[in-house]
Each structure stands twice: as structure tokens, then as C-alpha cells.
Design goal:
The protein has about 140 residues and is an alpha/beta fold. Helices cover about 35% and strands about 20% of the residues. Bound molecules: 1,3,4-trihydroxy-5-OXO-cyclohexanecarboxylic acid.
Length: about 140
């Protein structure tokens, strides 16, 4: 199984960035936890973080076609990233949209996701463990 983990803008700053909102766990720690679980399950994990929408689109165009599952936290691109949304829409793999914070309890601009209509499901507000829950689901239900 090949699983993609995609982190959008500013998520490289986790640990330092508004820890009261996003927690104190770093992106490297999240990726390491995901990799450990994926490896134990015999799955291959490819991860990317970029502050640039085009870099995420490029990655999906190369790696997305034969992916069996995609975990994505698009960061602020969630709310307006139509090129990212279209790149995801092309693919067959199930897509889980993850947010560390409960975006629906925050500012109104965070209540809209342009990614949600092309995602299989969404996890929001469960902190870094949301990524692990998404991975568990994909290991059970992802395309094989
Ligand atoms: C976020 C929520 C977004 O609104 C925000 O722009 C982020 C992080 C989250 O994980 O809670 O960068 O996706």
C-alpha cells in the first residue's frame, strides 16, 4: 500500500506556531509516528510539506495516480486552494482531510473547505492524533 501524507502552508512551524491552537507536537514527530505505524502495517508512506500550492499540485501529479490513500492537511489552502482541490479530484485514492484544530469553532472563513467535497472524509479538532486515526482508516479501507 502506498499512502501520501500532505501538509500545507505553515504546518512546518508546528510546535512553535500558536501551540494553544495547534499543540506542541512538531511536524517531524507527527510524520515519525505515522511512518512507524505504516511500516508496522507493511505500507509505504510518502510525506511532503510545502508553503506553495503549486509544489503540492506537482507532487500529486507525480505520486497520486498509484496512491492507495491520501491524508491531507491543506492548512489555509483548505479555504481557497482550488488548484489543490482540482489535483485531488483527479485521483482515485480515498482522501482524508485532517485539521488539528476544530475549524468549525473558529473564525467564519475557516468554516468553508474547498477540499471537503472531493474528500472521502474529514477529521477536525482531534490534534495530531487525527492523522493517526486517518491512517488507521486508510489501512483498513484504502484502495489496495
Ligand atoms: C488547520 C486549520 C486552517 O484553518 C489553518 O489555516 C491551518 C491549520 C488545522 O490543522 O487546524 O493552517 O488546517
Amino acid at each position: 500500500m502506498k499512502i501520501l501524507v500532505i501538509h500545507g502552508p505553515n504546518l512546518n512551524m508546528l510546535g512553535q506556531r500558536e501551540p494553544e491552537v495547534y499543540g506542541s507536537v512538531t511536524l517531524d514527530e507527527i510524520d515519525a509516528a505515522l511512518r512507524e505505524r505504516a511500516t508496522a502495517a507493511g505500507a509505504t508512506l510518502l510525506t511532503i510539506q510545502s508553503n506553495h500550492e503549486g509544489a503540492l499540485v506537482d507532487f500529486l501529479q507525480v505520486e497520486g495516480w498509484d496512491a492507495d490513500g491520501i491524508i491531507i492537511n491543506p492548512g489555509a489552502l483548505t479555504h481557497y486552494g482550488l488548484a489543490l482541490r482540482d489535483a485531488l479530484a483527479m485521483l482515485k485514492a480515498p482522501i482524508i482531510e485532517v485539521h488539528l484544530s476544530n475549524v468549525y469553532r473558529r473564525e467564519p472563513f475557516r468554516h468553508t473547505s474547498v477540499v471537503a467535497p472531493v474528500a472521502t472524509g474529514q477529521i477536525a479538532g482531534l490534534g495530531w492524533r487525527g492523522y493517526l486515526l486517518a491512517l488507521e482508516w486508510l489501512l483498513e479501507e484504502g484502495r489496495t
